[in-house]
Amino acid sequence: MTIRSQLITKSFPDLENVIKLNQEAFPEEERLPISELLADADNEHSHFFAFYNEEEFIGFAYSVTNETVFYIAFFAIMPHLRSQGYGGKIIDKLVEFYYPKTMVLEIERLDEECDNLEQRIARWEFYKRNGFKQSGATLDYNGLSFAILYRGNHFEKEGYEEIFRRFQEEGGFEFEIKYRNFCDL
Prior knowledge:
With 185 residues, this protein is α+β, with helices and mostly antiparallel strands. The protein has helices at 15-25, 34-40, 86-98, 117-129, 157-169, and strands spanning 3-7, 46-53, 56-65, 69-77, 102-108, 133-141, 144-151, 176-179. An eight-stranded mixed β-sheet has the order 1-2-3-4-5-7-6-8, sandwiched between helices. A hairpin with a 3-residue loop joins strand 3 and strand 4 (69-77). It is globular, with a radius of gyration of 16 Å. The relative contact order is 0.14.
């Protein structure tokens, strides 16, 4: 398995695959239009990557970075390629690309009522297998709440918060980061 990456731009040849995957992978309330990601990725702090195994489109990741953290806002693998090791390989590529920064992302919480608990547990198990730890913090916005995970030596609280302050300054959404202690699953 040889994974390569390519930056996604407005003239990206597989843009239709990216749009379809975005629709499939993210619920409407969590999804941003690809046009917004493309507009925001055109700066020094954001990257919109497509990943391929030879010529086959595997998925994408949208990252925002600062001096200490790289935040993965969106990460998706094509449905027919999930559970085949691609996600872990892509995470490793991202960690290598952004080294020595801490990787941070959010997942749906496991400690709240939901109708997709099995899916949430599987997602957490995937990230745990790939070196992620729970930060003890949550991100809340638009009535949604997510557990914040990190991969690195420690959770870079200040770096993570700085990225969200930047989002807010740029006209983004209202959010709240809450810190609490809860057990590792």
